[in-house]
Design a protein that fits this description.
This protein has 693 residues and is of the alpha+beta class. It is 66% helix and 9% strand. Strands 2, 3, 4, 5 and 6 form a 5-stranded antiparallel sheet that branches. α1 packs across α11 (257-284). The radius of gyration is 30 Å and the shape is elongated.
């Protein structure tokens, strides 16, 4: 076991050179990693809406409408000319406007005003565009340049273009704020000015290598891109702290630097690897999801944890030995005072904290299940340019979205009946189809080829349906169910429904099913690891209760505040808070078991809290500032929401571990002793209360 540490210490300069070379290569590789901003791409391949999009792209040159442009101060002839300008932009497959719904050879005043109002109101025209996914970002920028800042743009491709422009800058801003705050926390909780720099530099190199090696996946989601670096920094910094704390202990014992580092690497290995495994299990739980963003985050984070552990056992020891003289010169007195007096006072709150948790946990579980969840609209906040444009379009034309229903062509009677049924759906405001726009009584040889190609393919006819509702409303999901039912009624097994609402509907069903498996794998995996670590059944049960309770409380707060919660953010925070809280819990329980071998339970718990509190608070504080940095500096509403959950979860976890967990350990002390293999607790003083001042 000592050969590897001795090799690293002996060849420290070569080790540093190799790791830095790998980091340099990773920077180059990182530029080739494609970031995917389209949530719909991560739906399972067997989702109905995924198959519908594939069929639509095969049958028609356009696709599903995915952008809207509102231009004010234009006449109808000017709007028609502008439509032609949009069609000339590379990446614009199709533009729908009033002339696609009605014939403009008829004077506007004689047209159905409800139809006209969907496209043109008081000199303001609203165009619905279909953009090519591969060229959509460039097309959005060109259209923005053509129409100017006064025009308003919204839609999924517009949101993706905005995210493409902002997410890299957001990540830099988040790290620029989080890293100095992390350094400040480390300076306050360590006894050296230089050690925190070594911690952050080591994990920073690990983050760079992880981001560069994402090239093996070809692409990663914008969610992974937005949170992975920050989470890796927050989680992996603990591994560096574990190692250098051991090293410092051996130095204070009078050992020579190289010998101290070899022994520190040997003795810290178990703690670091165990911590890495428990953190990895939380993210492994995301890998069982059928919704592809979950496995995307899971693989990147597990890889990041592995790379961080490798860097902690290679780069950090090498750097520390090379900088040993500087570390000695920059040692400062501890800023954290002796904790025996504060702990004595804080212990009084343990039982009240447990009682409060037992009272609130059931209402919190119910609240989590009754949250108002958001599934698909995860890109634009109300303060962003796209968010403001979307609201402006909504204020003028109302809520609306597009769906495309495709059915086999040739059965004109069924097409007419189906059209009538679609128009009877309350939220449907308009339909463009061959049976309505041209008329089934007119042979398909007569319309001009361009018009015909938009409505009919070799095998299918399509209905482009406009609905007056938001993408994720109950009415929208009811419309999806109705349209799918109508398709099955008239064309059993031969229809397809595509569109953002259909994607959102399938995503909702997918993640709800995934949620069950994520919980089973996460909790089951953690329980098994805890059982192996502590060789006990009751200790893992106590820890899992504390962990799950803090997660449920965290996710219930939006309900009580009247806010929405992103369902996927809930699943991310489950994995993340599970991984973080279990580390805090293991540290506290491990110290309690150690002290319990020589002390009665009350004294053992007091010493445990004195010994473990600083480490737990340090880790939680790093996660807290990381979460707040993401919450307040990210322009993406999903990432911002994840940041709030991370910060709040870190605070709740540290409260649960430092107050509720000690109370449970003291209450179940006898049961833990009896049901733990090899537990050698000293006899406790009979008759004394479990928790006292």
């Amino acid at each position: 076991m000592t050969r590897f540490p001795e090799f690293i210490v002996k060849h420290r300069k070569k080790v540093i050179a190799v790791v830095l070379a790998v980091a340099a290569i990773s920077i180059l590789l990182y530029t080739q990693v494609w970031i995917n901003y389209n949530i719909a791409d991560y739906l399972p391949e067997d989702s109905p809406s995924t198959g519908a999009i594939t069929l639509l792209n095969d049958e028609y040159p356009g696709g599903v409408p995915n952008a809207r442009v509102m231009v004010s101060g234009v006449s109808i002839p000017e709007a028609l000319a502008l439509k032609d300008v949009f069609l000339s932009v590379d990446g614009v497959n199709e533009v729908q406007w009033l002339d696609d719904a009605v014939s403009l050879e008829t004077p506007v005043e004689y047209l159905d005003p409800d139809v006209v109002d969907d496209y043109y109101r008081d000199g303001t025209a609203l165009f619905t565009l279909t953009l090519d996914g591969a060229k959509s970002t460039a097309a959005v920028h060109e259209i923005r340049n053509l129409v100017g800042d006064e025009a308003k743009m919204s839609g999924m491709t517009v949101s993706e273009a905005f995210a493409t422009d902002t997410i890299e800058g957001d990540l830099i801003k988040v790290l620029a704020v989080a890293v100095p705050l992390v350094l400040l926390i480390l300076v306050l909780t360590t006894s050296s000015w230089i050690e925190p720099l070594l911690f952050v530099f080591t994990i920073g190199i690990a983050v760079i290598i992880n981001m560069g090696t994402n090239i093996v996946f070809g692409q990663i989601s914008f969610v992974t891109q937005g949170i992975a670096a920050l989470l890796q920094l927050a989680f992996a910094i603990d591994y560096a702290i574990f190692l250098l704390h051991r090293y410092g202990e051996h130095i204070r014992e009078g050992m020579e630097e190289k010998q101290a580092m070899v022994l520190a690497m040997k003795r810290a290995a178990t703690s670091i690897i165990a911590s890495g495994i428990t953190a990895a299990i939380g993210f492994v739980s995301l890998m069982v999801m059928r919704f592809g963003v979950g496995p995307d985050i899971g693989w990147v984070m597990v890889k990041g944890i592995l790379i961080s552990v490798i860097c902690v056992f290679t780069l950090l020891p090498a750097l520390t030995i090379c900088c040993s003289k500087l570390v000695k010169k920059t040692t400062h007195r501890p800023f954290i005072p002796d904790l025996h007096k504060p702990v004595k006072k804080l212990k009084k709150f343990c039982i009240p904290a447990l009682i409060i948790m037992l009272i609130v946990i059931v209402p919190c579980v119910i609240a989590v299940e009754n949250n108002h969840y958001v599934y698909f609209e995860v890109l634009d906040g109300p303060d962003t340019r796209v968010g403001q444009d979307t609201q402006a379009i909504k204020d003028t034309f109302g809520d609306f979205s597009s769906l495309v229903l495709m059915v086999p062509n040739g059965d004109f009677a069924s097409e007419r009946e189906l059209l009538s049924c679609i128009e009877d759906i309350p939220i449907v405001s308009g339909v463009i189809s061959y049976s309505k726009t041209v008329g089934t009584e007119i042979p398909q040889e007569y319309p001009d080829p361009e018009t015909l190609s938009k409505l009919v393919s070799d095998d299918y006819t399509r209905y482009v349906i406009t609905v007056n509702t938001t993408i994720e409303s109950d009415e929208a999901f009811a419309a999806v169910e109705t349209l799918r039912s109508l398709g099955e009624q008239y064309y059993p097994g031969k229809w397809a429904l595509a569109g953002e609402i259909a994607n959102a509907y399938d995503l909702r069903d997918c993640v709800k099913k995934d949620d069950i498996w994520v919980n089973l794998v996460g909790i089951g995996g953690i329980f098994l690891v805890l059982m192996l670590i502590f060789r006990s059944l009751i200790t893992p049960a106590v820890l899992v209760f504390v962990i799950e309770s803090s997660i449920w409380i965290n996710c219930s707060i939006p309900y009580f505040m009247g806010d929405s919660l992103f369902y996927f953010a809930r699943m991310i925070i489950f994995a993340l808070q599970l991984a973080a809280t279990v580390d805090y819990g293991i540290l506290l329980v491990d110290r309690y078991f150690l002290f319990r071998k020589t002390l009665p339970k009350r004294e053992a718990m007091r010493e445990t809290m004195c010994a473990a509190s600083v480490s737990i608070i340090t880790s939680a504080a790093i996660l807290l500032v990381s979460g707040f940095s993401l919450a307040f500096l990210s322009s993406n509403i999903l990432l911002s929401a994840v940041g709030i959950l991370i910060a709040r979860g870190a605070l709740l976890s540290v409260i649960a571990v430092l107050f509720v967990l000690p109370a449970l350990l003291l209450l179940f002390d006898k049961a833990i002793q009896k049901l733990t293999i090899g537990a050698k607790f000293v006899k406790d003083d009979a008759g004394k209360p479990a928790v006292t001042g």
